[in-house]
């Protein structure tokens, strides 16, 4: 295979993989850090801790394979948020997360559940649901942000959710 063709294929595959964590719809920075945690007894502490992690890392750039404040990918941010905020260890990749946790019907999603999005026919992006139609995640375009499930880009892409208790 010619080097230019090989390079083109590699670039195209990389763009497709990274596109899974893309977002062009986000909440303003004025909205995101000031959310009030949900008040139900079973989720208020969890939600508050996850918002604190979000505030710590908000704006951290996207980095494929990243799991630190220098850069996160979507699953790297989720595993870090769960580990630092809740003391839980989750599987590292989106595909591994899809094989674990309790399946939750999308109409029964609670704050702290991991939500998955279908992009280009494949579940390849994930975030943490925070209540009131919001989720936090690491996007390729904006880094760690808060978005709305019914936002322009995300509307109709939510495919499933998992609960990791």
TrEMBL record:
Stated name of the protein: NlpC/P60 family protein
NlpC/P60 domain sequence ranges: 44-165
One annotated GO biological process: proteolysis
Presence of keyword Hydrolase: yes
Annotated TM spans: none
Gene3D superfamilies: endopeptidase domain like (from Nostoc punctiforme) (3.90.1720.10)
Pfam families membership: NLPC_P60 (PF00877)
Coiled coil: none
Cross-referenced SUPFAM superfamilies: Cysteine proteinases (SSF54001)
Organism: Marinobacter adhaerens
PROSITE patterns listed in its UniProt record: NLPC_P60 (PS51935), PROKAR_LIPOPROTEIN (PS51257)
Keyword set, alphabetical order: Hydrolase, Protease, Signal, Thiol protease
Family statement: Belongs to the peptidase C40 family.
Signal peptide: 1-24
One function term, GO molecular function aspect: cysteine-type peptidase activity
């Amino acid at each position: 295979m010619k080097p230019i063709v090989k390079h083109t294929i590699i670039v195209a595959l990389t763009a497709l993989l990274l596109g899974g964590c893309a977002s062009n719809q986000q909440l303003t920075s004025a909205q995101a850090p000031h959310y009030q945690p949900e008040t139900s007894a079973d989720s208020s502490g969890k939600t508050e801790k996850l918002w604190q992690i979000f505030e710590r890392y908000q704006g951290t750039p996207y980095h494929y394979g990243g799991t630190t404040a220098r850069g996160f990918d979507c699953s790297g941010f989720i595993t870090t948020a769960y580990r630092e905020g809740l003391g839980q260890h989750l599987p590292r990749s989106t595909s591994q997360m899809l094989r674990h946790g309790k399946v939750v019907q999308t109409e029964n999603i609670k704050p702290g559940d991991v939500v998955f999005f279908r992009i280009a026919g494949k579940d390849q992006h994930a975030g943490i649901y925070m209540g009131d139609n919001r989720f936090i995640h690491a996007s390729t375009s904006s880094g760690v942000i808060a978005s709305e499930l019914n936002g322009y880009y995300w509307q109709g892409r939510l495919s499933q959710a998992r609960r990791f208790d």
